[in-house]
Amino acid sequence: MIIDARVRPPFKSMTQVLASEPGARPPVKRSPLVSGYERTPSMTQKSWELFIEEMDGAGVNKGILVGRQAGHRIILNDDIAELRDRYPERFPVALAGINGADIEAGVIEIERTLEELHFSGIAIDPGWWFPPRYVDDPKNYPLYQRCAELGGVLYLTCSLMQGPDISYAEPYRIQRVANAFPTLQIVIVHGAFPYTSEMLGVMIANAPLANLWVIPDFFQFIPGFPGAQDWVDAANHYLGDRILYASSYPVRPLAQSLSEFQRFSYKPEVLENLLSRNAATLFDIG
Q1: CA atoms within 13 A on the CB side of 97
Q2: Which residues pair with 4 in a beta bridge?
Q3: Whole-structure pTM over 0.90, yes or no?
Q4: Domain count, the chain
Q5: What is the span of the domain harbouring residue 148?
Q6: What does the pLDDT profile of the chain (286 residues) look like in tens digits?
Q7: Is residue 23 part of a domain?
Q8: How far is CA 1 from the centre of its chain?
Q9: Separation of alpha carbons 11 and 2, rounded Å
Q10: Is there a domain that residue 144 lies in?
Q11: In a domain, 211, yes or no
């Protein structure tokens, strides 16, 4: 079984997950984030039906639906719930996007989505809020606290992309959050790139609490990215139960992402953990 731990199919408002900021510069063609792959039919036609077909073609059995509410990038959590409920075997887990710019409203949305819509946790992008916020800003703590109280998993997006500068990805800030909320299971999306070594250090230090997980996603498997082999070495020797595989579609295609991920020299039992067992354990997927 293969579980893609972060997908945003082109279903209703989910097509806005990568919406460009009004007045933003066009993507730089030489950037590896927007080059090196051909857009698939589901991407070009914005078709969730074709996305399902592409899952089958890639051999991806299940996907974890992940929301986003950050600035102008707004996915309606009700749309996520609708897609999950249409295909519960295909999408057994959904995480609600939470806009923490208004903390009180964010807490209310956490309660609504986890208690009423039966979401499994929340996803936040603090560096993209208006104004941007570091992940360890105490203003965020009521969101973390309520998620922990309700037994939810927190997806925390941290990389050079999420914020005005790369300081918003500094792993020591993640460690502070993990220490402050030891019962909260936290998944670090993008692996805090480019701070790969520092993030690995935080993971080693977190071993006694064991409440941190990592999705390096395309910041590892795109060919040529620095630090890629470090994740492989860590997985093969001491971190094999803490890393999740994800394509992060629609940033990258399903099939190509999986192929690029599998080209690394993972031990067979470790690869099984990364592709399915770890996500199944975290989210209790049968």
Answers
A1: 27
A2: 63
A3: yes
A4: 1
A5: 3-18+31-283
A6: 999 999 999 999 999 888 766 665 666 666 787 778 889 999 999 999 999 999 999 999 999 999 999 988 999 999 999 999 999 999 999 999 999 999 999 999 999 999 999 999 999 999 999 999 999 999 999 999 999 999 999 999 999 999 999 999 999 999 999 999 999 999 999 999 999 999 999 999 999 999 999 999 999 999 999 999 999 999 999 999 999 999 999 999 999 999 999 999 999 999 999 999 999 999 999 7
A7: no
A8: 19
A9: 22
A10: yes
A11: yes
